[in-house]
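User: what does the whole thing look like in 3D?
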Amino acid sequence: MNARLSALTLIVILIATPAYAVGMKEGQPFPLFTMADENNKMTDIGTLIDKPTIVYFTHNSCHYCTQIIVLLKRAEVKFGAKNIGIIGINIMAKDGKMVKSYKKDMGFTFPMFAGNRDDVLNTYKVNYVPVLVFMDSGKTVKRIIGHYIHEKELHGYIKEMLK
Amino acid sequence: MEFNIKAVSGLPGNMSRRAFLAGALSWLGYMMAKGHAFGAVAVPPESTDTRLKSLTYKIEYLTEFYTTAKETVKMWIPLPTEDAEQEITHLSIEAMYPYTLNRASDNSVVYIETSGIKKKGTCASVRYTVKRKAVGITLSDDVDVAKKYLKLSEWEKRDEAITKYAETIVGGETDPMRIGRRLYDGIIDRTAYVHELCSRGVSAIAFEDKSGRCDDFNAMFRTMLVYKNIPVKWEQGVMLPYRPVLKKKGTVEADCINSHSWLKFYAGGKYVPVDLSEAKRWPALRDFCFGRLTPNRIKFSTGRGLTLRPPQSEILNTFSYTHVEADEVPMIYGHNYRTFIKYELIRKEI
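Assistant: Here's the predicted 3D structure for the full assembly of 513 residues, as C-alpha cells:
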C-alpha cells in the first residue's frame, strides 16, 4: 500500500508541467465545428455543450492517452453524464471509421469526432496529445491541460467546473 | 522466451489498480532513465559520450499484442537502416504469422498480413546486432540528391511568423553552415523542451508555442533552412540511454515518446548532422550536437510523410515503431499493441 501511494505521489509530481494549446485560450469561447461522428453523421459540437464539458484531444498512436480515456470513463460514472459532458476529438481520424473502431476498442459511449481536418487542426492548434479542455456550459474555456493527468487532479478540475 | 515487460500488459481499457501501478512504475522508470524525473536534468551525459566512436548492441525488437482481433491485420515493423553509419548483422526474425522482408534504400520493413490476431503476446521478434557509429560531417558532391531534401512535408508549415524570424536571425549571412548555426542556436534558445507528450511536429504551432519535442525542434529548423534554400534530410529512430544510465542490458519502449529524430543539412558539399532537441536537453552537448551525433541511437527511417511497402492506409508522419492496421484502420498503440526494444550492449569503442 505504501509503495502504491509513493508511486502515485511521484506521478503527481511528475505531471506538474505546463499546458500547451495555443489555439484555445482560457476565458475565450471554445471554437465550434460540425464534425463527423462514428457513423459519419455530421454534428455541430456546440449543440452538445449544454453543461460543464471536457473536450479531449487524442489520437491512435498515443499510449498515455488511452489511460486518460479510462479516467474519463470513470469520471463520467462518478459525476454523472447528466452533470458533465465529455467529447472526444481524434485528431488522427479523417472520418467515422477510425472513430467507430476507437470507441469500440476503448469501450466508451461519450461522443467522439473525427478531427483530422485542416480547419479543425489549424483552429485548435493541437500539436501534442493528450490535451484536455474544460469549459462551462457557456462554451467558455476554463482550463487547458496539455499533459498526462492524475485521476485526483482530474476530479479536482471537474469539481471546480461544477461549482 | 522470457519477457520481463509482461508485467505491464493489459493496462488500458479495463485497467486494474495493480496494472495501473505497474504501468505507473514503468513510466516512472522510463522517465528516470531519460534523465528528467522531477523536471530536473538528473544524469547528464558524461564527456565520454562525445568521445565514443561506436556502440554495438544486440537488439530484440518486439511487437506485442494485448488484444486479439478478427479483422484482417496488417503490420509494418521497422528494420534498421543499413549504411555507413549503422552496420546490421545477424538479422533473424520470428513471427507468429507469415512475413515478408521488404527492403528499400530508406524505409525497410518486416511486413505481416494475417486474418486476425488469434493470440495475445509476442507477435514478432526481430533480432539483430547493430553497430552504431558516432556521426560527423560527411562529404557529398551530389547536389541533385541533396535537392530532394528541399521539399517540406505537410507538417512543416511555413507561415509569416517563421519566415520573419528566419530573416531576422539569418540577416545578411549567406554561408549555409553559418546560417545553420544561427538558426540552430535561435531555435534552441527560444524553445522549451517538453517531455511526456506525443507530438505531431508541426513547425508553425511549435514556433508559436515556443515549445516542443525533437520533431518540433527539427520541423522548425527544417522549415527555416528550406526557406533559405538549404536542403535538410530528416532521419528517425529510437534513442537508447546515454552511458551514465546505460545498463549492460535494458528495455526501451519504442513508442511515440521514445521515438527520436535528427537532421542533416547540406552545406556546400557537406552533410552536417544536427540534433537540436538533445542539445536543448543537455546544454553541455550544444556544440557537439551541431555537426556530430552520439551513437546511442538506432535509425529506422528517412523523411516524413511516408508510404511503406506495401502502402498503408494513409501516409505516416514518421516511422520508428510498428504500425498496425485492422481492416485498414490504425490500431491503438498502448491498447491493442506495444513495441519494445530489448538491448544488450556488447561493445563500445572509444
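In plain terms: The first helix of chain A runs from residue 2 to 14. Residues 1-19 of chain A have pLDDT under 50 and may be disordered.
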